[in-house]
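forwarding from the other thread:

> can someone predict this with 1-O-phosphono-alpha-D-glucopyranose?

sure thing
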Amino acid sequence: MEIKTIATTPIEGQKPGTSGLRKKTRVFMEPGYLENFVQATFDAIGGAEGKTFVIGGDGRYFNAEAIQTILRMAAANGARRAIVGQGGLLSTPAASNLIRKYKTDGGLILSASHNPGGIDEDFGLKFNIPNGGPATESVTEAIYAGTMSISRYHILETRDLDLNTIGESRLGDMVVTVIDPVSDYLDLMAGIFDFGSIRALFSSGFRIRFDAMHAITGPYAKAILEGALGAPAGSVINAVPLPDFGGGHPDPNPTWAKQLMDEVMSSNGPDFGAASDGDGDRNMILGRNTYVSPSDSLAILTANARLVPGYAKGLAGVARSMPTSCAADRVAQKLGIESFETPTGWKFFGNLLDAGRVTICGEESFGTGSDHVREKDGLWAVLFWLNILAERKVSVAEILQDHWATYGRNYYSRHDYEALPIDQAKALMSRVENRLATLAGMRVAGLKVSMADSFSYHDPVDGSVSRNQGLRVQFEGGARAIFRLSGTGTEGATLRLYVEYLETDPGKLGQDTQAALRPVIEAAHVLSGIDSLGRAAPDVIT
Ligand code: G1P
Ligand code: ZN
């Protein structure tokens, strides 16, 4: 086995986005593309010499080949050890757990999350730091800078390693440990939740349907829900991870998890439905004839956390991304705990979690998690709900209604306009941004603006400032419209419009979401001239 140093030149556009580097799979497969990014990552963290990394991915097309390359490069860069999920598989939260549990120097996670997979779809790679969370901005900036000046990478010339057999082997001087991807994660969950109580719920006839969407949570959900907790066989559907996710979008929302939605939204549907995404960090929660918005889910988990053994002592605080509805803030206020508003992206929760300032955090984009790992965690959210249901012995719909009656209802929706010409999307954002300073006090489509700004986050832990994190327009009475460009898309630009409106009148808590939000949507359209995009309607509404 020979360590080779290969001359290379910078490749444009290797800038990590909201969650690592995501590109079309064919781009990642171009000669040197993956290698440059991996070398830049090792260089950005002061080299790989003597270090231990967790490596795994969501099993999408090119996962297997990319892992072999990463292992060869880790070995050639002097890494001491690599912990790899069997078959090259690890969900993102499971990888985060392993990074923490085995006190490693970080991990490389191969995934483009909820984006479709396949040779003509998307691939991604991200580096997580030793706390188990996504690399902070200073690290991703160093990686990007490295990709712009790279001149060589190191790689071992060797055969492919067998990753299907659990056990240890060597690659040059590096030890490769192939582990069961599920067992450490299962232990972690069993330490947080009351498995006995959930088992009793299942044996009482409570029916659950979990849609793994042909993605990574299949093996985890089978082992935990059907195995450890005794849900009937077949409770987990689409459980076998496929390189192209069966041709679908592995995105747990009403649009892409339609099979599950159809089943749950019927009078004889299961009591509980849930789905997770490509890499297992997102979740969608459903009850019979009931959809729980992710923002509401965060608020409900916060309000009911004491029912779960792992959080019985109470929460330090709660954090939500800026575009996430303010529902969780209202719970925090009542509980007398701190609440934080951070920019979009899980990496911004890391400092607050590490500092013990928050226990639970979440995003409107079907992401919720806690200090048990440093990623959002799909199955964790599902188990949290099941634990609450097992304790409260009421339906999902009743939990929602009770929550709204106590705290008011933050009607909430996100409208996505996808694959827009980049210039057009940027022009729209500039147009809104240029108006921000003059908006306060103005009436727009009947709503009075109380505050408008471009969101800047001042991290209370390390003092860092992140600017330009979305445009906020707040209206009197607790309504908001937020404009943001996606940082995870791989085609053109995606404009996200987030709208919210707070209702406290007990007689108005059961409205249709889009209908209740109509005045805010209208104001947002007037403000931004969104109709000039030439789209009749958003591509995705969640
Ligand atoms: C999207 C979500 C964001 C999430 C990210 C990674 O990012 O909106 O909340 O953290 O995916 O899962 P965006 O495309 O909006 O930049
Ligand atoms: Zn994901």
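The chain has a mean pLDDT of 95. thats all i got for now
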